[in-house]
Amino acid sequence: MHFKYYKWDDRFSKDGRSSFDTLWDLFQQLLTISSGDVAQALRWLTELDKQYNITDQFEENYSLSDFIEDLKDRGYIEQDPQSGNINITRKTERSIRQKSLEEIFRNLDKAALGNHKTHYSGRGLERQPETRKWSAGDDIGQIDSVGTMLNMLHHSSLDRFELEEDDLSVYETDHYSSVATVLLIDISHSMILYGEDRITPAKKVAMALSELIMTSYAKDSLDIVVFGNEAWEVKVDDLPYLKVGPYHTNTKQGLERARHILQRKKYANKQIFMITDGKPSCMFENGKLYKNSFGLDRKIVNKVLDEAVKCRREHIDITTFMIASDPYLQSFVREMTEANKGKAYFASLDNLGGYIFEDYIRNRKRNIT
Fold first, then answer.
1. Do the beta carbons of residue 319 and residue 271 sit within 8 Å?
2. Rounded to whole angstroms, how far apart are CA atoms 261 and 256?
3. d(CA 229, CA 26)
4. Are residues 251 and 316 in the same domain?
5. How far apart are CA 263 and CA 257, in angstroms?
6. Is 48 in the same domain as 165?
7. Distance, CA of 51 to CA of 43 (rounded, Å)
8. pLDDT digits (tens, 9 = 90+) for 82-91
9. Residue 162 and residue 199 in one domain
10. Which end of the chain is more exposed for a tag (fewer CB within 10 A), N or C?
């Protein structure tokens, strides 16, 4: 047995985590809530320290000033030379995505990570125990050598071994498929109404899902669309900075933009994940924004249903994650789900990430090309 010794660092707490790491975890959460506003996150961190005496619990004399200096030294924050504002760096953006992924996966089965298995057999990455006769085009790397030799011995003698084509046996393999996903996020004003922060969990899911795909599903694609009065695409690097605006909810254009993105993807399997908490309340009509926030306007609803049907005809599944408990709004989601033949989850903010990730990872694909 070998041991490796390091110089003692008295800035580590009893649980093995340094003072910096303790504050860093909290700071990343505050950055997500503040949409990447470093100054606001630091103000909140200062208030929390005053209220709960966080730094007083550290065994060494480590202050918030020390923490800020460490953030600069480690490349997590930098000062804009023109405005003088303190901003987060790409390193921090990546760390927040990884933190979101770890947080969501904490309660999920890690064994589910990997590629997307299907009900179909074919050339793939994981060997099954079952075998079958070899046919033209099969991967010779999957030949069952023992089974092939036994087949040959059935018609051979000790003096003469004769291998025939029918003797060749190959292992069955699971077929893995790539998936094109558009994550559709509602950023209308209702996402922060009634004192409930719904946009932060949605952002965390988007950051975690993007990190998962980039690190574990290299052949998959993820595009992100946000929608309010209108819909537009955002990049992965933009996610920490997303904010709710004074918008209505243009669900129709959100679905339309997602569908157009997926039309350009050369994937057999395409899906839309939509996170929303409210009813569709606006749409463009003759180049002008038609709005109605009172009840479910059938003119708007019917256009959304038309878009859901178009997605179905183009073999695009819509999975809606409804983060509101209003039965009136849930009835609309059920109607849209029926039109698309998709799925709907009525999720709380606590389990939103679990629902989306379990659905994504366990999704068994039907179309194989």
1. yes
2. 9
3. 33
4. yes
5. 10
6. no
7. 12
8. 998 999 999 9
9. no
10. N
Pairing of strands 316-322, 269-276: parallel
5-58 pLDDT, tens digit per residue, is 444 444 444 456 789 999 999 999 999 999 999 999 999 999 999 999 999 888
204 and 348 inside one domain: yes
Residue with tokens 């000790």: 158
Residue 1 included in any domain: no
In a domain, 184, yes or no: yes
DSSP 110: G
Report how many domains make up the chain.
3
Which structure tokens are listed for 295? Answer: 């009840």
Q: Are residues 183 and 130 in the same domain?
A: no
The answer to whether residues 223 and 262 belong to one domain is yes
pLDDT value of residue 352? 76
Q: Specify the DSSP class assigned to residue 195.
A: G
Rg (CA), the chain: 27
State the residue range of the domain holding 67: 19-88
- At residue 83, φ and ψ (nearest 5 deg) are -90, -20
What is residue 284's predicted lDDT score, i.e. its pLDDT?
Answer: 97
C-alpha torsion 71→72→75→80, nearest 10: 120
Only one residue has tokens 């994550």, namely: 183
- pLDDT tier at 137 (50, 70, 90 boundaries)? low
Query: Is the pLDDT confidence value at 292 over 70?
Result: yes
Tell me, what's the pLDDT at 118?
Answer: 40
Q: Does one domain contain both 134 and 192?
A: no
Q: What is the pLDDT of residue 173?
A: 59
Pair (272, 190) in one structural domain: yes
What DSSP assignment string belongs to 246-294? S----HHHHHHHHHHHHHT---SEEEEEEEESS---EEEETTEEEE--S
| Residue 290's CATH number | 3.40.50.410
3-state secondary structure of 189: helix
Cβ(10)–Cβ(75) below 8 Å: no
**DSSP-derived secondary structure letter, 368:** -
In contact, 282 and 229? CB cutoff 8 Å: yes
For residue range 182-226, list pLDDT tens digits in order.
999 999 998 887 778 889 988 988 998 899 888 888 789 999 999
